[in-house]
Design brief:
single chain, 422 residues, mainly beta, four-stranded antiparallel beta sheet, 1 helix, globular, signal, Protein nirF, Haem_d1_sf
Length: 422
């Protein structure tokens, strides 16, 4: 025990010394004290059934094992995690967490610790990882824009300010997604634009003389008022931006960007009284089930159904409240929906054949997120105000297990590493 204590003390002193030597370096390793409970790094294991639960109130995360349905590590010290999201390295070992305070944190899931952390902006709202896994991009509210970092070192390689208009104002960036061809695509909330960036020419080497180290940015203006979020289809072909300022969505064909952006679902709420919006809904590729896309109707107690072959509306499903997440089970047989306040204590399940609600469950107070296991036999649901995550069997809706968590919000499994738009 004495030898172990001495080694621990030596490690702390060594890291402290390195911190002094590094001075004002923007990229820093995590201090040993930041890890309260760590995974057993001596056990040989894969990463395919790991995941992360965000604990927003405490600025911490839990690393979880989805096969054993248990927590294997707790990592504090991640800053403001309200509305935090993350992406995974392609081997599923590292998670890149985007915090609301502008923090970008690289987690080592196998060691259960912070590998690197930078403060890259004043207010960040999410990010994406490139097709080849070499770069991580963060989307920012303040200052508005996108920053691109090397995935291995978190070194900044490109800064793309979201300046628009004659006065050069900066827009909030939303809906950032990766796209085939080593591209990123995102929307500008204040400007009403969609931008794409081709990063194929950016070198991942620290060669400051590399004149090609600039992304090729293409801008699409006048796509609609106040795009609030975006999704890219699972095959990476179509990017959609939901519009908050008007009824409709904007669609960009990534195979043929030269054709520009077209409007879909135009005026879907026409003639109806607008309801106050209690929480902004979220969009991602999880909304696509087979050939149909299920998306939330802004301010309405409805889920809209589109045929992705024509992008025409083919149906609506009445639900209990204003949808926030509309997520298809991996096999596309069911679509699960959670809601904004005051209906945020329940989840409804839509059967895609009948397009009707077949089940209503109550996981707890303030349901914030849902995540399916890779093949969809279970779904994990966070109930923030009850400080728990509830795991359901999706075949019979029975509760399989509950895990304690401090104000849990987002749940992210490593299987996202192999999916476009996640």
């Amino acid at each position: 025990m004495k030898n172990k204590s001495n080694k621990t003390l030596l490690s702390v002193l060594l890291i402290a010394a390195l911190g002094v030597l590094s001075g004002c370096a923007s990229v820093t390793p995590a201090p040993v004290a930041a890890v309260a409970k760590t995974a057993n790094a001596t056990v040989l294991r894969g990463t395919g059934d790991l995941g992360v639960i965000i604990e927003r109130a405490s600025g911490s995360v839990q690393v979880i094992d989805t096969s054993k349905m248990t927590s294997i590590a707790s990592i504090p010290g991640l800053g403001d995690l309200s509305h935090a999201s993350l992406v995974y390295s392609r081997d599923g070992r590292y998670a890149y967490v985007f915090g609301r305070d502008g923090g970008l944190t690289k987690l080592d899931l196998l060691k259960g610790e912070i590998a690197l952390r930078v403060i890259q902006a004043g207010n960040s709202i999410g990010g994406a990882i490139s097709q080849d896994g070499r770069f991580v991009a963060a989307q920012n509210y303040a200052p508005g824009g996108v920053k691109i970092f090397r995935a291995d070192t978190l070194e900044l390689v490109a800064d793309i300010p979201a300046a628009y208009g004659k006065e050069g104002k900066f827009s909030k960036v939303v809906g950032l997604a990766d796209a085939p061809g080593n591209r990123f695509v995102w929307s500008l909330f204040d400007a009403g634009e969609i931008w794409t960036a081709d990063i194929s020419d950016i070198s991942d080497k620290s060669d400051k003389s590399d004149k090609n180290a600039h992304p090729r940015v293409t801008k699409f203006a006048n796509i609609g008022r106040e795009p609030y979020d975006g999704l890219i289809t699972p095959d990476g072909r179509f990017y959609m931006a939901g519009l908050f300022g008007e009824d409709g969505m904007a669609l960009l064909d990534m195979w043929h960007p030269e054709k520009g952006v077209r409007r879909i679902l135009d005026g879907y709420g026409k003639g109806s009284e607008k309801l106050p919006v209690y929480k902004m809904p979220h969009l991602r590729g999880w909304a696509v089930a087979g050939r149909f896309a299920y998306v939330p109707a802004i301010g309405r107690n409805e889920v809209l159904v589109m045929d992705t072959a024509t992008w025409q509306e083919v149906g609506r499903v009445k639900v209990a409240g204003q949808p926030v997440f509309v997520i298809a089970r991996p096999d596309g047989r069911q679509v699960w929906v959670n809601f904004a306040f005051p209906d945020n204590g329940q989840v409804q399940v839509i059967d895609v054949e009948t397009r009707s609600v077949i089940k209503r469950i109550e996981p707890g107070k303030a349901v914030l997120h849902m995540e399916f296991t890779p093949r969809g036999e279970s779904v994990w649901i966070s109930a923030r105000d009850d400080n728990r995550v509830v795991i359901y069997d999706t075949s019979n809706f029975a509760v399989r297990k509950e895990l304690p968590a401090q104000a849990p919000s987002g749940i992210f499994f490593t299987t996202r590493a192999g999916r476009i738009g996640f």
